[in-house]
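Hey, I was hoping to borrow your eyes for a little while. I've been staring at a protein lately and its backbone has me curious. You're getting the sequence in one-letter code plus the fold written as tokens. Would you mind checking whether the tokens look sensible for this chain? Here's the protein in full, and shout if anything looks odd to you:
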Amino acid sequence: MKHGYYADNDLPKFDPVAGYKTNSYGYRCPEFRPLPNGGKNVVVLGCSHTFGEGLEENEIWVSQVAKESNKILRWWNLARPGSSADQMIRILYGTEKTIFPKIIIACWPAWSRRERLDEYPQSLTSDNESLKTENNHTDQNNFLKNVFFLEKFAEKNGASTFHCFAQENYKLENNLKVLKNYTIKNCWPEWDIRDAKEIITRHSFAKDGIHYGLEHHQVFAKLFLRNFKAKLR
């Protein structure tokens, strides 16, 4: 099925990101076709922090979690630089009849982002002129709409879901599996997590000098596994 920019039998295609090895669809993971036999597919959705800008592939928190998890799991990192919750869900729906995910992990970016489906899909951040009428309430409700769509997709397809956050930590319903309190941004240094001033001055950065570095990803992977490893099966 395909309507406009949404499909359930093909993923959105993106241009390659310069300097990174991606598949023919622009994702930092192996090719989807032909899909390998056996195993259980895990899709991970997110923005540039989960894509791993400025990091080698084995340094990204997703790769570190995959290495320590059940060997029957086959991991697909579908994060994209600049991604919004809107775009993450559009990508997810494209996996229904292609990757057949049984575990879905969403590492949500800032909820102020949107995807505008114009002559071509546009990823918008909060400083974009098109978003000048948005506010914290519309940001929150747009985000929760996408959480709902993710959970309904999982319910329909018999998949487990896990939620975490790249920078800001947003409250979700207690019945969901959520990595609370910790984000990729605030998890390093571990001992200064409550001291915002100290965190800002002591971030570790990736090679691009913008995104969070290896220490953030190592600790975030450790926290994710501590909370969810037994449930990743």
The mean pLDDT is 94.
